[in-house]
Amino acid sequence: MHDAPPDPTEFDLIRRIRQRAAGRDDVVLGIGDDAAILDAAPGRQLVVAMDTLNAGIHFPLDTAPADIGWKALAVNLSDLAAMGAEPAWCTLSLSLPERDGPWLDGFLDGFLALAAAHGVALVGGDTTRGPLSVCVTAHGWVTPAAALRRSAACVGDDVWISGSLGDAAAGLRFALAPGEPAEDDERTRAAVRGLRDRLDRPTPRVALGRALAGRVHAAIDVSDGLLADLDHVCEASGVGMRVWAGALPCSPALSETVEADLRRALQLGGGDDYELCFTAPTALRDALGELSLALAVPLSRIGTVGVGERVRVIDAGLDQDGPEWVPPRRGYVHFDPDPDPTPDPARERD
Amino acid sequence: MHDAPPDPTEFDLIRRIRQRAAGRDDVVLGIGDDAAILDAAPGRQLVVAMDTLNAGIHFPLDTAPADIGWKALAVNLSDLAAMGAEPAWCTLSLSLPERDGPWLDGFLDGFLALAAAHGVALVGGDTTRGPLSVCVTAHGWVTPAAALRRSAACVGDDVWISGSLGDAAAGLRFALAPGEPAEDDERTRAAVRGLRDRLDRPTPRVALGRALAGRVHAAIDVSDGLLADLDHVCEASGVGMRVWAGALPCSPALSETVEADLRRALQLGGGDDYELCFTAPTALRDALGELSLALAVPLSRIGTVGVGERVRVIDAGLDQDGPEWVPPRRGYVHFDPDPDPTPDPARERD
């Protein structure tokens, strides 16, 4: 019999983080002082994004610590990607209900794996007591005038999306309704696991964003839901859009597990996709096809930018005519008491 | 009779923040896109601090929204001050239990008043649903090699502290025990209000930090409590310290409301002071006296740096002999179940 090890102190937790965090040449002083000191990249502009994940709001309460760590950094790198920035450093503020060394180690497994994949150094932050919450600030660099802004969409542009849509929202739906989908064969179970993985481990489109910087017009990452995020672009750019519902990219896992109407709702409004949505001149179609092959990232043309101020959805395939509708201005609004069509894990908790 | 206005959406709250946030010439793109774009200061190093305040942990639950806003930025500017940095921008992540426009306006009153006082631009962040929590990242600039590090204390240095110690901890104590202090005359009530103000509206020593940069050796801001923070400096610098308890600066409000033993405990271990503690060669005594007058910031010499690894407290006045004791390594540890001597507002809540 051994005595149980004493609970770690706050300083023990910080030491644990510090020991595992990797450096970078431009980190003059990392974790362990009142603030970090960093060398600026000459001739470039600093890009700063900050996003928080709260337990039960932004991830289901049963999410593994490593997945929480991954996602907390991923959503911030996705924001940098949507600006076309090259990520460099991040800071992490972690509120934990209790000092839990194994939980922290798991969290760092996910967080630092993604950081290492993108050469990002964790340089500071704090740990504190409180309801489980993870706040990350991500810093990157962009060539002046090359950043991708929401306000840069032009009439006549194509609207493009990376990857596929709706998977994360379906993964959340199944996480909250364990009986679904009804069919319980191995193929379906694998599809559901895949969807959950899109929810828990989103892929920030960093290389794509950097390749698009200075070449395409507006960009945004799809976090609130495609329509809500396209609305943000329309509002910032003073334009309207038409989007062909039949052109929305769909993963095999989603088409196998969700029937057509719900699938479309999840693709248009589910959110948490962290795909890049951008507008580009039609003259770039071939070049974007080549870029898609080069980066092995699917790129789908889904719409067109026109005059107006709203997004119109056409119930037809790409470039086809069909009935149009204008969805209400909404999406995944965190404070909304009924964020249809995606169930909100927070309500499980309230 | 009027209909009640509809609750604001998350986007309404962001719009509200955006409308009130002031700009700066080096802010290329502020609130409203996926990330902020900022011009780097040529030839300087970037300094980044990040700190979170959680309701009931870092401020009493009855704290006014404007005071929460002030303090959330103040603790981060204090970290920049402890590095000797000139603050430039901040980002804010605000988790709110409900969409509350008037609460947000109050919060911004305090936050933006302090930001304006230091020329700091709020450039991004997010608002989300969750238990009340405020995370801020502050960015500043420092001349290369001029930053004040915890690791730079030298044997023979004096130890200095700005302002006075223990007020905030006394303010917290009285906030949690409304019957205290017993004497209920107007003079005592005014003193208690003053102590509470030190808790709610700490003064980040930004001008002092900038004036000390490149001139003194180590620096730290006193947030965990003087002894805990001095321990951090000793550990980082590989030195020991002797501190004269009789030399610790004390406000009139503290001496009027708290008896000597408790007063000393609050000064040594209470925390939340946000004063700058720094070490400097003895040759700088006169210059520091002049700086104190020029900035109208009291500076007290309280100790000396020697060989060793711990802080020893001498029960005597400055430079006097007296009984010595080595306090245990602790201070305000957020995860500690019994953070003596300061009562922890979190325990009111658990």
From TrEMBL, chains A, B:
Binding site for substrate: 58, 272, 332
UniProt-recorded name of the protein: Thiamine-monophosphate kinase
Higher taxonomy: Bacteria, Pseudomonadati, Pseudomonadota, Gammaproteobacteria, Lysobacterales
Amino-acid positions noted as binding ATP in the UniProt annotation, renumbered to this chain: 125-126, 150, 223
Binding site for Mg(2+) 3: 34, 79, 221
GO biological process: thiamine biosynthetic process; thiamine diphosphate biosynthetic process
Major enzyme class: transferase
Other comment: Reaction mechanism of ThiL seems to utilize a direct, inline transfer of the gamma-phosphate of ATP to TMP rather than a phosphorylated enzyme intermediate.
Ligand binding (Mg(2+) 4): 34, 79
Pathway the protein contributes to: Cofactor biosynthesis; thiamine diphosphate biosynthesis; thiamine diphosphate from thiamine phosphate: step 1/1
Highest rank taxon of the organism: Bacteria
